[in-house]
Specification:
- The termini are far apart.
- β20, α15 and β21 form a beta-alpha-beta unit.
- The protein has 2 domains: about 280 residues, Aldehyde Dehydrogenase, Chain A, domain 1 (3-Layer(aba) Sandwich); about 190 residues, Aldehyde Dehydrogenase, Chain A, domain 2, CATH 3.40.309.10.
- It is built from 16 helices and 24 strands.
- It is globular.
- The structure holds NADP nicotinamide-adenine-dinucleotide phosphate and magnesium ion.
- The site of NADP nicotinamide-adenine-dinucleotide phosphate (NAP) has 25 residues, from α8 and α9.
């Protein structure tokens, strides 16, 4: 077994967390995997092993589902008032903030993102989302209905928690993804079995400790670390789970849907994207250029809503691409824990090779590498911010989600909004998009024409807790965050009382 690597920039608390044993949270207890197996977790900035984590599989998922079922049906959770449920969720946000430095360090180390992003964005936004959903715990209501059936009736609907929820999340924002899933499930009174991504289990486990600290009852949140094809597949197929919420690739999304058919559990999916970014000739370049740059290179391009297909009007195409290339050349690529790092590594060797392979495919198909295109250094999994021009919709780099720092730039020479929209909508995905113009009418007309779940105008997007996010087309089913996000975790019951 490799020696565990303790990064010299880690604070005492994060180092102490890493030194602890990392077990599964099931029914309020930290348990080893039933198989006794553990697996390595890495620092993508060095490729070194930073911790070993219990490798849960179907047997552990079974235990966790039983614990979640028991907590849902017989535990104190169902008797806790909405107000007290909300207070616990709110306190969880307080604890996240109190432990922000430690959690941000763990997030930066395990995911690779810069410490400043983790500290100033991931952790506070997660706290915000917990608070936002804490507020909803007391505001889950039904309707009274006027019905026309002869007789006298009192008819109403109630929204009840959907029950035991399985949640499977990716590695690109480990803490944020856990929060998007847990916050609405807790607000609505569900119980949960959460499986973090194999690459990034650490902050979810730390969150599990905080969940215990705020007094959320045992068995309400169970966390099983492990692999997708074992633990993940067991969640998707489990007959004791009422609903599965998944974020990840469309490919695995399809596997989840099939597995969920066994007991017809409810399914929500937040899948891939290939989001268009449309720059009109009248756009304010001082806003558009940095906005588009950020929209693709944030988090090393590992963002489901990343603006990865640029359509710029011919009149401004060169200016836009040169502007982005200039900004990209100034992005400081480095280890997430280093001072001044703006862009970290991609998550793994596999991902680095996958992204590099796409760039090669683009080149082979005739694309020009206008910026970047290569690896940075030979330790860790760093890639240059990359811009491909001379791309067209036949190319794999334009059609498929790369999930790395690669922008495909194309131009349009047209004033017809329908034709521009047709190009932008030429994708199996429909997660997000952005429009850059000073013309209010163009902005609104285009916003209506883009078939995607989130449209930015003169901004690529926002991660605010109140904004629902999710996909049209093959980008998914349902919306997370915002008031909409609660609906994924409730069932509507109609009650008809003959008076
Ligand atoms: P992925 O395989 O879809 O992983 C997402 C989650 O699903 C992980 O927890 C994964 O476990 C789990 N999983 C994998 N196979 C499963 C199965 N058969 N049944 C149940 N759960 C399963 O994504 P990935 O392999 O990490 O990344 C591949 C590509 O997916 C990326 O390059 C990107 O294009 C896309 N992606 C999109 C998003 C997004 O937010 N839209 C996020 C991540 C990845 P493991 O961790 O063990 O694989
Ligand atoms: Mg995978």
């Amino acid at each position: 077994m490799n020696q565990l690597f303790i990064h010299p920039r880690l604070g005492k608390k994060a180092a102490a967390f890493l030194a602890r044993e990392h077990k599964l949270l099931i029914g309020g207890k930290w348990l080893p995997a039933r198989s006794g197996k553990v697996f390595d977790t890495y620092d993508p900035g060095t490729g070194r092993v930073i911790a070993r984590v219990a490798e849960g599989d179907a047997g552990d998922i079974d235990l966790a589902v039983n614990a979640a079922r028991e907590a849902f049906e017989n535990g104190p959770w169902g008797r806790i008032t909405p107000s007290d449920r909300g207070k616990m969720i709110w306190r969880l946000a307080d604890l996240l903030e109190q432990n922000a430095d430690e959690i941000a360090e763990l997030e930066a180390l395990n995911n690779g993102k810069s410490l400043s992003t983790a500290r100033n964005s991931d952790v506070p936004l997660s706290a915000d989302l917990f608070r936002y959903m804490a507020g909803w715990a007391t505001k889950i209501t039904g309707e009274t209905l006027s019905i026309s059936t002869p007789g006298t009736y009192h008819t109403f609907t109630v929204r009840e928690p959907i029950g035991v929820v399985g949640q499977i999340i990716p590695w690109n924002g480990p803490l944020a993804m856990a929060t998007w899933k847990l916050a609405p499930a807790l607000a609505t009174g569900c119980t949960v079995v959460l499986k973090p991504a194999e690459q990034t289990p650490l902050t979810a486990l730390r969150l599990g400790e905080l969940i215990q600290e705020v007094g959320i009852p045992d068995g309400v949140v169970n966390i099983v670390t492990g692999f997708g094809h074992t633990a993940g597949a067991a969640i998707a197929a489990h007959p004791g789970i009422d609903k599965v919420a998944f974020t990840g690739s469309s490919e695995v999304g399809r596997i989840i849907v099939k597995a969920a058919a066994g007991n017809l559990k409810k399914v929500s999916l937040e899948l891939g994207g290939k989001s268009p970014v449309i720059v009109f000739p009248d756009a304010d370049m001082s806003v558009a250029v940095p906005g588009v740059t950020q929209g693709i290179f944030a988090n090393s391009g590992q963002v489901c809503t990343a603006g990865s297909r640029l359509f710029a009007h011919k009149k401004v195409f060169d200016r836009v691409v040169e502007g982005i290339a200039e900004q990209a050349s100034k992005i400081r690529v480095g280890h997430g824990l280093n001072d001044g790092t703006q862009m970290g590594p991609v998550i793994s060797q596999v991902q680095m090779e996958r992204v590099s392979d796409y760039i090669e495919q683009g080149r082979a198909a005739g694309a020009t590498v206008a910026a970047g295109g290569g690896r940075v250094g030979d330790e860790g999994y760093f890639l240059e911010p990359t811009i491909l021009t001379d791309t067209n919709p036949e190319m794999s780099v334009v059609r498929e989600e790369i999930f790395g720092p690669v922008l495909c730039a194309m131009s349009f020479d047209d004033d017809d909004l329908d034709r521009i929209a047709k190009q932008a909508n030429d994708s199996i995905y429909g997660l997000a998009g952005s429009i850059w113009t000073r013309d209010l009418s163009t902005a609104h007309k285009m916003a209506r024409r883009i078939r995607a779940g989130r449209i930015g105008v003169n901004v690529h997007g926002s991660t605010d807790a109140a904004i629902p996010t999710g996909g049209f087309k093959e980008s998914g089913w349902g919306r997370e965050k915002g008031h909409e996000g609660l609906h994924l975790y409730t069932e509507v019951k109609s009650v008809i009382v003959a008076l």
